[in-house]
Amino acid sequence: MPQKNLIKHSDFDRVLITETLPYETPIIFSNDGLYNRVKNIENSSDFERKLIKSIVFGDNDQLKYKSTKPYLYKIRKNALEYRRLALLHPLSQWKIRDFYKDYSKLILYFCNNSPASIRTPKSIASSFFSKSSWENIYKYKTSSFTSETVDGYAKHTPSFFSYKGYDRLYKFFNSTDYFSLEKKYQVQMTLDVSKCFDSIYTHSMAWATKEKEFIKKNLKSSSFGNDFDIVIRHGNDNETNGIPIGPEVSRIFSEIIFQKIDNIVINNLSQNSILFDNHYVFRRYVDDVYIFATNEELAKKVYSTYSDILMKFNLHTNSSKSTITFRPFSSKKSQLIYGANDLIDSFFEKFLKKDENNRLKPKVIYSSWRLNRSFIDSVRSLCGINQVTYNEISSFFISSINERIKRLIDVDGEIELIEIQNYAKALKTILDVLFFLYSVAPSVSSSYKLSTSIILIIRFVRLKLVDYEEEICHKIYDLTIKLIQDESQGHHVTPASGFIHLENLNILLSVRELGESYLIPESVINDICSNEESYSYFTVISYLFYIKDASCYSNIRDKLIKYLRSQFSDLSDITTNSEKAHLLLDVLSCPYIPSKFRKQWIKAISKKIHISPSLNDTDVNNITTQMIGSTWQINWAEIDLLNSLEKKELKRAY
């Protein structure tokens, strides 16, 4: 059963953990260190305390109100398109934290006005549930995810608010609500908002939160919309057109606006005697709208009304993505998932069996190649029948396989000698399938699943299949090299400005688990980011974490230091440039950068933000040593990537 974990209602610092970061980041990245620094600021050194007050709190009024520039990066959306995400400056993240502290009740009020929303905050979270499948593999963790204290759990909570509705859209389509709607209405029509977050006009927050009787009774609410507008713009270079993509706070910002739109649509239609929950209904999941109506004409009327109101908020529909379905409401996606479920079950039944405790145990495998070829042929056939690409289904398979691995390695005690070979063959079979599915349709979300599988398998074989450790570890090593080479060559042909090959970086980070005997060749790592011009924060920290102080990576290390020296040659924008601020904080605590450079940067930052303009050599040496023990976003010393991946799963994007 999932485990319930308690957290403090009043801990607004956890906003830094749950609301301000994109989901799609390197697996080593989090705000856990920043959270701890803020919580324990009084126990910090004088240098760190002043650093936090300048870069995070913005104690200088001039800094506090000057907008910041987010770190913008692109990840793969599909085979042809990219998504551009934003990592906000720590100072802007802190302003969001303060906004939540002042306005959390009003956020909840304005997020609970529409009957159409199927994912919206309902209360401040006081607990969260950890997934039972992770509890089953605790023996493979090097440090504990759980904590005996409520404060300890705060860093693992998936969101600041508790939500009502559905955390994933597919759950709506499997719900009793959806079945009831199909029983009541003959037609389903979809409405897609084009480039929603890129198009939102921030001043529309004021329009969405005015003309409320509630405002008259709450003095603070009169400035709520304006303050939310200011906070969002502060972290986005003061842009009024578009909001940062990635952070949960942006989804809440858009939710309030869409709730206003929902209600205007419902009211406008009611004036023409077209009644919500009678003649029609619609359900909205973030910016995806599903209209249900008694006939096609009425569904189109609702669509056109919604589209018209969207335009008044500077938003537009993408008519090319709109679909109309008549009962039965069976979408291509649902048919695909049903088929995929049957396929994956059939595949595993051929070489895995359940024991009395519902754990999986391997059967004898006579030919891994035939087993894999048969499965992959079936996947191809499924895609062909449904006229979709691997991108539509690969992540589902990878996630399903990852869950099977957790059950397969849930072994207590020694494995019987007669079964050891079966386990080894089963794992090698699974690895081949996993890497194939990932290579044909890589995605950031799938990289977290594959990384989890890789680390679990490595730890399992080292603990339970010692005789096969070298063989299986070498297989992972070879598969990873081939994956990186194939993927990187594809992006040399069509590079995209600002693109971060996060899919490959995450796999690279996970195979660091293999240890010093299986270090990926320097030439292969260079393939991920082939030139210094395309270096950026996430690339640099991922490379540094992987290469550590290994002598075989001297060329990469030299390139990284050259890049860092260039970046830090001018620190005048350290309090406004998100990428530079994050990079500096993590590099100052990185033990793999020669101390002479870190000392130079400590002196430079001290002067730029007036921490101490006249540090002597002893002061600098002491600060350099102290900073090595600090964690900001990257924990260079003690991190269990399984814990990081578990938190990723709890906080997965939607």
UniProtKB/TrEMBL annotation:
Coiled coil: none
Highest taxon listed in the record's lineage: Bacteria
The UniProt record lists the keyword Transferase: yes
Database matches in CDD domains: RT_Bac_retron_I
Domain Reverse transcriptase residues, every copy: 54-343
Name by which UniProt lists this protein: RNA-directed DNA polymerase
GO molecular function: RNA-directed DNA polymerase activity
Record field: transmembrane: none
Keywords: Nucleotidyltransferase, RNA-directed DNA polymerase, Transferase
Taxonomic lineage from the root: Bacteria, Pseudomonadati, Pseudomonadota, Gammaproteobacteria, Moraxellales
Pfam families attached to this UniProt entry: RVT_1 (PF00078)
